[in-house]
Amino acid sequence: MKSNNCTESVEGRQLDIIQRIGGIGYWEYDPAERAIFLPEASQGLLASITGSPVNAWASFMQALGNDGRERLQAVLDQATANHLSFQVDLQLIGSDGRPACLAFRGAQVDLAPGLLGLAGTFSDISEEKRREADHCRINAQLQAQLDGQLASMAIERSLVAKTISDHEAHFILLTEDVADVVWKADSSLHMTYISPVDQRLRGYRADEVLGRHMFEMLTEEGIATVLQIMAQRRQAELDGKADESITFEVQHRCKDGRLLWGEVQSRPVRDANGVITGYHGITRETTERRQLEDQVRELAFYDPLTKLPNRRLLGDRLNQSIVASQRKDSHCALMVLDLDNFKPLNDAHGHLVGDLLLIEAAHRLKSCVREIDTVARFGGDEFVVLISDLSANRPEAMEQAGVVAEKIRICLSAPYLLKVKHPSQTPETVAHRSSASIGAVIYLGQQANPEEIFKWADAAMYQAKEAGRNAIRFYDEG
Ligand SMILES: Nc1nc2c(ncn2[C@@H]2O[C@H](COP(=O)(O)OP(=O)(O)OP(=O)(O)O)[C@@H](O)[C@H]2O)c(=O)[nH]1
Q1: What is the biggest distance separating any 2 CA atoms in the chain, rounded to whole angstroms?
Q2: pLDDT tens per residue across span 172-195
């Protein structure tokens, strides 16, 4: 099969760089198989965290220990059952005996048409955890000092008052120093304290925030997330299982209309009877990390030029289609398409104009199939179409696939009028004729493996080329 090693390697390199700089890995979870899938670059990142270069996922599971493994599985099960997004922090011991902490974040997504699963990212937060522990230690020390002073207040009221104000000044200095926003709210979520960092991040002065409701800082989605978390906390309190500290990520509104992502770590403040009288917490800006996470996902699974799924994602969808086809007893079709007469366009007008044709071809291909079908780009001028839910009867399924293939062939052979915009020149329209040679194969369940299916469709595509191009050939099993 022809391939575009250059595009693949650029993608791989970009992904690699993003993962190294951002320290973010990507995963997908198929609930039916109860299996996690990691792209290759994420495996490398995981291996560097666990310190074991061999079989990154296995050494990660080993490093988690029984408790960690059970915890991760429970979170995946719960997120699948309740359609929740989640974050779980997992402690592990690397192969060199070094303790590490990994943040697993995820949400429900369509892994493939009709297949709901989970997808998300992981990152090494060992350093953040160490810093958090330092914060907590400092806060605890301050709190202990304040408590001690308050206890002797009756005796040395005036002396203590001075000490407290010293400590408050110390506390304010500390909160100004850290990059995170420190805040407090009363039990009805009206803000009672916010550190000055918030003004740097969101543009609001503290006096514009104090007394306002916390929800005024958040987007509608963020409010829904907080309400959901509060309902869960109330239920957990009733069950006697409430966690004191809760971490969640929501978007915050800025004064100039921008939106920022913030990871909020919140704790309740309780009176002597354990009744919640307010909340306090730390909010860390995570916009850049979220953007990196989105970029990692894009680069890992999508072709940057056409935005179609790439070879890696198609491989995954093909595996899923085989399982689904077995379960539903319905055929699927895989078609490999190579454009004809594409190179002359590049040669005459340059690669940028060639790119416009590839983008147009991608649009045309998508318009020929249903939402549940997959159109992928394999690099170069080669595309792959995966069609599922065809008849259980082989000749009938072949006829159905033939109708789609013919629709694609006609659609791709229509003339291309490419609008080229040169910088500081009037736009020109380049007309070009291309078509596609299409090789198709029909498969049912696990009768064949993905490599064979690709090989057969590819062989059929070469037959279509040899037959004079702009043609369709089905793989003949005979
Ligand atoms: N514009 C552009 N061209 C690419 C890209 N990737 C590969 N190519 C070019 O695509 C062309 C593919 O060559 P061929 O498939 O042999 O060209 P063809 O004229 O369609 O020939 P036949 O398939 O034999 O009909 C080569 O010129 C590659 O340089 C890309 O991302 N953008």
Answers
A1: 101
A2: 666 666 678 989 999 999 999 998
Q: What's the CA gap between 399 and 331, in Å, rounded? A: 11
- 462 exposure class (CB count in 10 Å sphere: 0-12, 13-18, 19+): middle
- Dump the DSSP string for 406-417: HHHHHHHHSPEE
Ligand 1 center to residue 425 CA distance, Å? 27
Phi first, then psi: give them for residue 420, nearest 5 degrees: -100, 125
Give the chain's domains with CATH numbers.
Answer: 5-124 (3.30.450.20), 128-290 (3.30.450.20), 302-474 (3.30.70.270)
Q: Which of 385, 478, 397 is nearest to 444 (CA)?
A: 397
Low-confidence ranges of the chain (pLDDT < 70): 1-22, 54, 139, 142-143, 145-178, 477-478
- 389 CB within 6 A, ligand 1: no
Taking only the tens place, the pLDDT of each residue in 412-446 is: 999 999 999 877 778 899 999 999 999 999 999 98
Q: Measured from the CB, is residue 351 less than 6 Å from ligand 1?
A: yes
Whether the Cβ atoms of residue 438 and residue 337 lie closer than 8 Å to each other: yes
Residue type, 202: R
What are the beta bridge partners of residue 387? 333
Contact 211, 191 (CB under 8 A): yes
Is the shortest distance between the CB of 355 and ligand 1 below 6 Å?
Answer: yes
Only one residue has tokens 């407290």, namely: 164
Task: Give the single-character DSSP code of 309.
Answer: B
The pLDDT assigned to 6 comes to: 38
From the alpha carbon of 338, which atom of ligand 1 is closest?
23
What's the whole-model pTM score? Answer: 0.56
